[in-house]
Amino acid sequence: MQISFITLALKNLRRKVFRTAVLVFAIGLFVALLVFAVSFTISITSTIDRVSQRLGADIIAVPIGARTEAQEYLLESRNTSFYMPAELIDEVKAIEGVKNVTHQTYVSSIDGLCCDVIPTMLVAFDPETDFIIKPWLNQAIGRGLRPGEAIAGAGTADNLGLGLVVVEATLFNTPFSIVGDLEATGTGLDNALFMTQESFQLIIESGLSPVREDEISVIFIQLEDGLDPDYMGRVIEGQIYTVDVVTRSSMGVRWLTTLADINKIFLVTVSLSLLLTVFLVWSIFSAIANERIREIGIMRAIGARQSHVVLLFFLEVNLLGFLGSLLGVAGGTWLSAHLAANFELLSSIEAGLEIWQQLLIGLLGMLVGAGVCLAGAMVPVNRIKKVEPLLAIKDA
């Protein structure tokens, strides 16, 4: 019985191919806009959250005034340099509630003058205290770095063409062996070369580096369990006047502020598109109901119940919703994938979606598309199911 209803629904949709196509296309446009807007928003927020989680620090202390530069490096992979006295490590460590600290020093290589690799950020870390690089280092080569050795982030390894072989390189006139590459993290750390503080000392001694021996760039801070990073950030800034802090909640705040404004535009656009689509579905199904009132009257006269009429229209509505939503999900996914490079906000932080996120957004698009179709057709279908058979045949 159900198969015959599906066949009948398909035949009804094929009666007016152009009208069916217009309806499918309209639903598809709305769903594509929705999928693109949701993908845009989630890709940025999840990327910033992923960066924050993978750094493993509750707070990042940077030289005063260098808060933006630090985030540009960690989120956008921009080569940048900023330094503060290394003695601040002990001052941070002495603050009550601070559990662990580690530090890193950044310097940009200069192609041709002192280095034979493409310009990239060199990151020196302390293997004794590090909790940022070590987990990835153990996974990549199963041991620590030796003096004179460096390891590349995933993006830098691609640029260097690094494979299974060790690459010999010169950094600030100092020979280094690049012994491997780290797994991609989705952070600015992917586009860097890492070495221990001991190896970095060789670069400082070359006299070509702008950084001095007693300088560092950032201090990563882990807090005791249960402490509020925002409160502790204010405590650290209050006790050490020469540092600014970036907490997890404030990571990427510049991008999130811009995103909030964009989301308002998306909300208005999607809302208007939703209303237009519902109105279009309502008007087309109202026309369909008027055209088929005699047909429905005859069906009711020969024994069809209201539930049969509802089932028939329900199948037509869902077929339209399914086709339109499928078209919209494909279009929205394609737009979000191919237009990302044209948006500074997306390309600067290399924002992207995981497969499961894309699947969930696609599912959301399918459900909303079907819901919009049902909402628009509800009133006409409810009206036609109550038609009196004899009156319908007579009036038609």
UniProtKB/TrEMBL annotation:
Highest rank taxon of the organism: Bacteria
Location relative to the cell: Cell membrane
Membrane topology value: Multi-pass membrane protein
TM region positions: 21-44, 265-288, 309-335, 355-379
Residues annotated as domain ABC3 transporter permease C-terminal: 270-389
Any single GO CC term annotated in Swiss-Prot or TrEMBL for this entry: plasma membrane
Coiled coil: none
Keywords attached to this entry: Cell membrane, Membrane, Transmembrane, Transmembrane helix
InterPro entries, alphabetized: ABC-4/HrtB_transporter, ABC3_permease_C
Name of this protein: ABC3 transporter permease C-terminal domain-containing protein
Species assigned in the record: Desulfurivibrio alkaliphilus (strain DSM 19089 / UNIQEM U267 / AHT2)
Phylogenetic placement of the source organism: Bacteria, Pseudomonadati, Thermodesulfobacteriota, Desulfobulbia, Desulfobulbales
